[in-house]
């Protein structure tokens, strides 16, 4: 009976204490049981009482939306009005991204590659010269600042993979081959040189830049420029400088005209030649000089049919008309100018004789002859 009473006492204690097994006076059923139960109690208490909010805040956000880099947001806000600024600051990759958007929007009228099947909205295919100029300079900037390893990776990813078999333009292929050579290092040494080469290209193939001429520069022909009073003219197509080039010589250079003695432009395209001839035809039709000094040029280099025609001859004046009409006047005809001074007073001869008679024109219109002196008789 004592055992039964003890069991009832245990049940009552269990009802009063929700954790009867953790009672300090409980006899362990195995060695270390009470210690295990205390560990379990501590674990349960930790889950029921979460850590303070301050501790969670110090740990940082558990999950957050991806943060867009600030550089990418800035590039997306750039537009055509920012292009020249990026070129001037040497931001070559950003300038190329702006040009890529402009090409895809149809702001370029043609490309520098005459091959068939070129997508005009793909800047890497239709305008490879822009890609090589901008990324070529970016490659050399990385080579100077970051070393050969990073520069080489940039060249492989951004240039070599795009043009494994060339660009389709012999002129641009030469440019591509020189990027990693010593000539490329010299070519891409100064930002100003790349700036002018890119803006030269824009003035040909991007209409909104066609008539933008930097301060101090003047246009020579349609696709030539010179600085101030310099006698050196820069070809916008091949970026070379030539001395004493006139608009006619620039024309012959770009048209590969066999009549001229100028070198043939290696960067001249079908589009350039069509634009020059179209401007000349329009000028000839309007009977005005071609724009920017262009015009039909003869073999000797002088202006031809596009110049203004000479003005008509003036009508005959009254004196001419009166002389042509019949007259009944008895006045003698005018004295012919045969070298004698007919208006001066006649002086006597040295020998005291009579002065010579006045010479009059013959009836047949021949030149008059002086009358013989009396001494001659």
How does this model look, in words?
- There is one protein chain.
- With 377 residues, the protein is mostly helical.
- It is 43% helix and 4% strand.
- The chain contains 15 helices and four strands.
- The protein has a four-stranded antiparallel β-sheet, with no helix packed on it.
- A hairpin with a 4-residue loop joins β1 (217-219) and β2.
- α6 (92-104) runs antiparallel to α8 (128-146), α8 (128-146) runs antiparallel to α9 and α8 (128-146) packs antiparallel against α12 (191-205).
- The longest helix is centred in the middle third of the chain and has 19 residues, at 128-146.
- The model is unreliable at 19-23, 295-310, 316-333 and 335-377 (pLDDT under 50).
Write out key terms for the chains shown:
377 residues, mainly alpha, four-stranded antiparallel beta sheet, disordered C terminus
How do the helices and strands line up, and which of them pair or pack?
Elements: H1 2-16, H2 33-48, H3 53-58, H4 70-76, H5 83-89, H6 92-104, H7 123-126, H8 128-146, H9 148-160, H10 170-177, H11 182-187, H12 191-205, E1 217-219, E2 224-227, E3 232-235, E4 241-243, H13 247-255, H14 270-285, H15 318-324
Antiparallel strand pairs: 1-2, 2-3, 3-4
Provide a quick synopsis of the model.
With 377 residues, this protein is mainly alpha-helical.
């Amino acid at each position: 009976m004592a055992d039964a009473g003890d069991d009832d006492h245990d049940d009552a204690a269990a009802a009063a204490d929700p954790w009867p097994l953790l009672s300090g006076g409980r006899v362990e059923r195995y060695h270390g049981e009470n210690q295990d139960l205390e560990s379990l109690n501590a674990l349960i208490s930790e889950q029921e009482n979460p850590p303070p909010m301050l501790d969670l805040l110090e740990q940082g956000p558990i999950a957050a939306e991806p943060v867009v880099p600030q550089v990418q947001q800035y590039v997306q806000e750039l537009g055509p009005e920012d292009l020249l600024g990026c070129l001037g600051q040497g931001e070559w990759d950003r300038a190329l991204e702006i040009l890529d958007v402009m090409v895809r929007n149809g702001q370029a009228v043609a490309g520098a590659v005459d091959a068939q099947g070129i997508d005009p909205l793909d800047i890497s295919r239709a305008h490879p010269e822009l890609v090589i100029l901008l990324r070529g300079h970016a490659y050399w900037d990385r080579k100077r600042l970051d070393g050969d390893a990073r520069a080489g990776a940039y060249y492989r990813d951004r240039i070599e993979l795009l043009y494994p078999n060339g660009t389709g333009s012999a002129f641009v292929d030469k440019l591509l081959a020189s990027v990693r050579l010593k000539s490329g290092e010299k070519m891409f040494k100064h930002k100003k040189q790349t700036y002018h080469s890119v803006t030269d290209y824009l003035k040909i193939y991007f209409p909104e830049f066609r008539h933008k001429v930097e301060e101090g520069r003047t246009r020579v022909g349609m696709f030539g420029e010179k600085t101030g009073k310099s006698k050196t003219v820069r070809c916008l197509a091949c970026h070379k400088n030539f001395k004493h080039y006139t608009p006619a010589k620039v024309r012959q250079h770009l048209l590969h005209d066999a009549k001229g003695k100028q070198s043939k432009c290696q960067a001249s395209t079908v589009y350039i030649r069509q634009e020059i001839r179209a401007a000349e035809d329009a000028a000839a039709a309007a009977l005005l000089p071609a724009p920017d000094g262009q015009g039909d040029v003869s073999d000797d280099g002088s202006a031809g049919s596009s110049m203004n025609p000479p003005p008509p001859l003036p009508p005959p004046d009254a004196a001419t008309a009166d002389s042509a009409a019949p007259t009944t006047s008895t006045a003698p005809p005018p004295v012919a100018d045969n070298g004698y001074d007919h208006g001066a007073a006649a002086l006597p001869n040295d020998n005291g004789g009579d002065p010579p008679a006045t010479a009059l024109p013959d009836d047949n219109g021949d030149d008059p002859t002086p009358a013989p002196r009396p001494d001659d008789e």
